[in-house]
């Protein structure tokens, strides 16, 4: 109907024309003449022409939609599309008639015709995906039919009759089973890449469990040509069945794969591989746990490895299918302490050494990496050495980025299984990678970690090689944005090299200066602030230890270097004052540095004050070791050095003296109050002696004597110290422990005498 000149006609005339046209197309004698349709099909593309006319006719009005002519046109169009196998037109008819089927009985019949012809013409395995609206219509239709008719229960009863027949119907059993399989396959669709039955999820679970069991039992009786349909149905049953049925189906498929791997063609093995992988991927939650337990309890990994090892001469496609299944099963496994894991690695190594299979080396590396990441028991040393030498050989067809994906988990979990020659060969390979300027930064730090791990297994020649490439590591620390932990690894490597090559001091000094490592350490110690946070702890500690090693080996000999190291250590104590072990280690470095540089210069008051304040403010000062080192440092800075905090009225010095007195009293009380026994006093006799020496030196000072007369706080501190000394002295005298240590006894007596004189002076002032 041409509507272009509609505006030129009056409204009554247009209505009259439409009514006359409706009378014509409703006349059965006129519409029975096929000349109407023949005239529409005279164009070059008759299907598109009829489709266009149908669109125009059914969109005009409701009366024209249900006319006899339109029904004839629909029927002719559907049959012609089916005869020419035009799937697109058939799907369009089914999709368009879906919305019209409730308007008349003729439309419902046409819709059923279109659906049936579409189902018969489409491929079985791709008809029910989710990419089009027509497929949704087909799924909805089949789902409704399955749900309302109870067809699955009927099929299950038929299968149970075949199972219980025990060969009574051998002449008809194959045909009946084939019919059941084909009917069940028509009820299978694909939803989001997963094969499943088209009824709602969760319905008739018991029926599907019985169907799965019957199909597995009847498998040995039906024809081999039905394998693809059989596997398709079993895969669809995995979605709506219980965990036991899923385990049964998975076991059946694994058994088929192992038995038929050698004898069946590539296409069959590939399809069976796809079924196994889709079953594994679709299982989740408790079903994934069931599959995982089945794999571990039955050692499926070892069985697959033996199958692949015994069939090395199969085609490349079949071998690749087997490796894909092995990779997926290794991926879902959680228990790798089985003996068969080593058999699997042997199989993979044999595959990697075969030249025709080298293009598939990526999947071998994937499986090896999966095993090494989750293996807890030690693997055979010979096997690991073979894997290592194969992968680091120059003829290996993959780059260092791929190789490190295997070496990194091997070093983390199985480094104790590698022998010494393999470790040295691995380190040499890592050095060759580290000096490569085009290496990825992530791979570079992985190689650095391997070098750090096996640095102790190197001989002197390899260590010299590391020192020769020291410039590369210094550039990485200064110019690259390395993580603090990786910077600490580089520091450790340099420290080990210096200690190991101490007999070749000239070589070490020259190479260290040429690489810029010494200047780098100097700049780090002269920094105003430390690396912040817990992540910077490793870098700060490694810098301190590297500087200490250089000082010990007389590579850093300047007095200013010693001052910088002492100040750097004091900053570390302030930053990590709650870490008792770390504080003790840093104090030990400070003592060693102060003693070494004592004869080279005089430490200024600023340096001494900073060291004292970091000791006095440490929250771990009650620890015995920290107390011992802290008291020693205070005695070294305040008592051994004359005139440091004596005869000085500076307010800062007064505050420091006050903190020292409080610190010493705290140490005395902690030692005496822990156990209140002579044994505790005897263990800490050195700390007690130094502590009382410090207090006696302060209390003898004329400034303090004046302060205690005018300040009640200082008087109470003095009396508190005297009480502690008296208690310790009484405990020693009772146990006769004072006779065993004349130094501690003499110090206690000296303090008691001073306290008596000071008390007498306060009572009888001059």
Characterize the structure shown:
- There is one protein chain.
- The chain has 766 residues and is an all-alpha fold.
- Among the domains are: 23-122; 645-763.
- It is 72% helix and 1% strand.
- The protein has 40 helices and two strands.
- It has a two-stranded antiparallel ribbon with strand order 1-2.
- Helix 11 packs across helix 13.
- The chain is elongated, with a radius of gyration of 45 Å.
- The model is unreliable at 1-22 and 641-649 (pLDDT under 50).
List keywords for this structure.
40 helices, 766 residues, mainly alpha, two-stranded antiparallel ribbon, elongated
Quick rundown:
With 766 residues, this protein is mainly alpha-helical.
Describe the secondary structure blueprint for this structure.
Blueprint: H1 11-26, H2 28-31, H3 35-40, H4 46-58, H5 62-65, H6 68-83, H7 87-98, H8 105-121, H9 133-149, H10 151-165, H11 170-186, E1 188-191, E2 194-197, H12 205-218, H13 227-240, H14 243-260, H15 266-282, H16 286-298, H17 300-310, H18 316-332, H19 340-352, H20 361-374, H21 381-391, H22 400-414, H23 420-434, H24 441-453, H25 460-468, H26 470-479, H27 484-500, H28 505-515, H29 517-525, H30 537-552, H31 559-575, H32 580-596, H33 605-616, H34 624-638, H35 651-674, H36 678-683, H37 685-699, H38 702-710, H39 712-735, H40 742-763
Antiparallel strand pairs: 1-2
